[in-house]
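Reviewer 2 asked us to include a model.

Predict the structure of this chain.
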Amino acid sequence: MIGKKGKRGGAALEAALVLPILIFVALSMFIFPVCFYNKIVFTDVARDAARYVAIHNPNPEDVRSYVEQLLQETRIGGAHLLSGYGVDGSGVGKGVHIQKGPSDYVTVTLNYVQPTIFPQMTALIGGEPMDDYLLISVSSSFKKEWRE
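Predicted model (structure tokens):
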């Protein structure tokens, strides 16, 4: 009789130890593909925005609205741009950053926030342990087709 109670308690203890890890792994299998898809979408939008800047030489507000228009046409799972924009070094922490230098290239960098379900998930890939989001940055460069 004593042996059966001990086995039942052991099974409950094993389930209590393994179940959280199993749930974490199962949900991660759904979250990481969404993160990768969003990174691909934002990379494509950064490439299109860099091409737009390389051809037209617009002001930053036009680039921001162009990027937001492109993002509205895509399906992204909860990710969004950080607010603001910047040109030539003022874009740290901004959503859209345009670097126009003396070189023949322009670079557009998009910084965006990708939400996650588990706060500890971000620590696995280099984020802060208790954040419930990932800060991701993508950039693209194109050769200028205009002269200043």
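The mean pLDDT is 77. The longest helix spans residues 2-56. We have added this to the supplementary material.
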